[in-house]
Structures are given as C-alpha cells and as structure tokens.
Amino acid sequence: MLGDLTDRDRAILTLEAAWPRHGGMKEETIRAQLGMSPARYYQLLGRLIDTEAALQFDPLLVRRLRRIRDQRADRRAARMRGFVG
C-alpha cells in the first residue's frame, strides 16, 4: 500500500527515478535535497526496493533497480567461484 511509504521513502524513489534528467553530481543532489550522505541514501534505497510499497509506487523503477542489483550480485558470485575453483 502506498501509505506504507514515508515522505523520505517517496523522496528517495523520486530522486532515483529523476536522476538521469539531472545534471551534475548525484552525491551533491542527495546531500542537498535529502540531507543525508550518499552511503545512507544507497543503504535506504537498497532496503526500499525490496518492499511491496515501493513496487506499487514506481514498478518500472523498482524492477529496474532490482534487476541491476541482481545482475551485480550474479557477477560477484561468478567472480568468487572463479577464485575458489
């Protein structure tokens, strides 16, 4: 349900969705608009994209971010298998 998202959650998702349209450095935008460090932003975004509320809020964005995260995890796992075996 959309009501499960906080204002901060919606702001994070909105910034992430709008980022390709922004110029400049993303880290500075995160600090200026959200008042948090980029590390905290990405930590919260990572948790947020696993929620049903975020998926309902912006399904295309959340699915894209999940796909990117999963692809990165798969590449890391493949590299680790290469080192182990």
Number of domains: 1
Protein structure class: mainly alpha
Percentage of residues in strands: under 5%
Radius of gyration, taken over Cα atoms and rounded to an integer in Å = 15 Å
Largest sheet: none
The DSSP helix count reads 5
Strand and helix order: HHHHH
Regions with little confidence, pLDDT below 50 for 5+ residues = none
Can you give the mean pLDDT? 90
Question: How many E-type strands?
Answer: 0
Q: Shape, please?
A: globular
The rounded distance between the terminal residues' Cα atoms is 45 Å
Helix content: over 70%
List the helices and strands and how they pair.
Elements (H helix, E strand, L loop, with lengths): L6 H12 L7 H9 L3 H11 L3 H6 L1 H26 L1
Summarize the structure.
Helix content is about 75%, strand content about 0%. The protein has about 80 residues and is mainly α.
Task: Report what the structure shows.
Helix content is 75%, strand content 0%. It is an all-alpha fold and 85 residues long. The chain has one domain (2-84).
